[in-house]
Amino acid sequence: MNIFRFLGDLSHLASIFILLHKIQTTRSCRGISFRTQALYVVVFIARYLDLFFRYVSLYNSAMKLFFIASSCYILYLMKIRYRPTHDPSIDTFRVEYLLAPCLILALIFNYKFNFAEVLWSFSIWLEAVAILPQLFMLQRTGEAENITTHYLAALGAYRALYIPNWIYRYFTEGLVDPIAVTAGIVQTGLYLDFFYVYFTKVLQGQKFELPA
Amino acid sequence: DPAVRPKDEL
């Protein structure tokens, strides 16, 4: 485990705690896309099914269980506990347009044509684009609470930090994972516009507002 | 065996 990966994982953990904190303290899931959160449940379950047949480390298993459990808990908070605060009329991105291409990509690009590996590849592609309903919603409302932008920044930083990790692993272990690398670059790329506004506005003490 | 991915990443 190198420092980039570790920081990436910490950033991912932090993003979930920030999101939970936002929902609990404001007692609202306003500004959060249910569709994106539901896609993360699909991503984690599809990818971490290997919990049942592969043991890597305590760290690895604990993180996988945490990501599955926390993503399900967030859905519960959004759909049941704070349901009235969720406005489905602005959360309208068609997730079929993400699921179908990801399934096709997974069937074409995988390391072995079996159920678990195709599902793994599917989860990698789906994770890359799962943020789109959220970004689409942000685009529609044109603004966001600061705490929501911190959540998105931590979530975006997580996969961005995996990129130097992959470079490091290539040089130190000779490992290359073209599927994860390609999807990871796409995933990070989707955040570029957001990061620009986050760094130039939110971190300068201004409100997150997109130009009209 | 063709390329295998590192199984330790999240």
UniProtKB/TrEMBL annotation, chain A:
What terms describe the molecular function in GO for this protein? ER retention sequence binding
Q: What is this protein called?
A: ER lumen protein-retaining receptor
TM region positions: 55-76, 97-113, 119-138, 179-199
User: Where in the cell is the protein located?
Assistant: Endoplasmic reticulum membrane
- Name the domain of life: Eukaryota
User: Does Transport appear among the keywords?
Assistant: yes
Membrane protein topology class: Multi-pass membrane protein
Is Endoplasmic reticulum one of the keywords UniProt gives this record?
A: yes
What organism is this sequence from? Hypholoma sublateritium (strain FD-334 SS-4)
> Cellular component per GO?
endoplasmic reticulum membrane
Q: Which family does it belong to?
A: Belongs to the ERD2 family.
The alphabetical list of record keywords is: Endoplasmic reticulum, ER-Golgi transport, Membrane, Protein transport, Receptor, Transmembrane, Transmembrane helix, Transport
Q: Which GO terms describe its biological process?
A: protein retention in ER lumen; protein transport; vesicle-mediated transport
One Pfam family cited in the UniProt record for this chain: ER_lumen_recept
